[in-house]
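Minutes, project check-in
Item: structure for the 334-residue chain
Input as provided by the requester:
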Amino acid sequence: MKKLFSLIIVFFLALTVVGCTNSVSSNTASNGENTESKDGKVIKVGVSQLVQHPALDAATQGFKDTLESEFGDGVVVDVKNASGQTDVCTTIVNQFITDNVDLIMANATPALQAAAASTNEIPILGTSITEYGVALEIDNFNGLVGTNVSGTSDLAPLEEQANLFTELLPDAKTVGILYCASEANSKYQVEVVKAALEAKNITVNEYPFTDTNDVGTFTQSAVNECDAIYIPTDNTAASCTETINNIAFPAGVPIIAGEEGICAGCGIATLSINYYDLGVTTGKMAIEILKNGKDISTMPIEYFPNPVKKYSKERAEALNINIPSDYEAIEESE
């Protein structure tokens, strides 16, 4: 009798284990892992994104949507966010290498630098990168990296961005440029915009903060000392627009931004690209590599062709700034 009872217990335990195993398999499949395409091959793509903010989020979404539209269940896109920590970008990429992904998409300069330093075999597509030559320390960069790296650039015409000051803020005599000192592409933009503003006889002061902890301090200094502020396409600044806005806006100091996400958070106007479309373009490049066997070393960097003048209606009106009719209003978030 005891033996029969023991057999019954073992039987039910076996059923329980099987049930648990099936449950885990089901959850794994629903999370996009171990999914099989029609031919039995799964394409694995890793996305390393530096920080969460609207511009980078939009680029990642455009990239992901494009791949999933092309490959359906035959692709797994693993998106990981470094929360602004550059060392975490390296950790993320190393995990992708261990997972043997077919391609890495690096969203923002530190993510690209970490990926390029970690592998010279897996194809790497960057996006939201302002200047690849600066990011990868390539002298006399001609638009083609020539290695396992290519991608898309978010570089808008910097001299035209500088023109926004004379067009919208003709009385501004001193402009402060607020940016993160550790972002190489921000430094590049600062040099170009500073030269363009100084050519207009505008005094330029630089306010290079170290990280998110001192953004408020440097913003306050810029507000105290300048008539207006310029912020380039800087990822750290983009993640701190609420802090910047809470200091600059009450003081009545207008901000021209390098991209729409920053402008929506704290600026009055920008000459900006569409980051979702930039992600779509990056996704199409990935399809060329993953589906059509294109050699990434022969693929030049692609640029957004038609940046758009945009403005914050709410801030422009509050600061009594007249906006010309060729500017497009940014949709204000609720």
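Outcome recorded: DSSP finds 13 helices and 13 strands in the chain.
No further action items on this chain.
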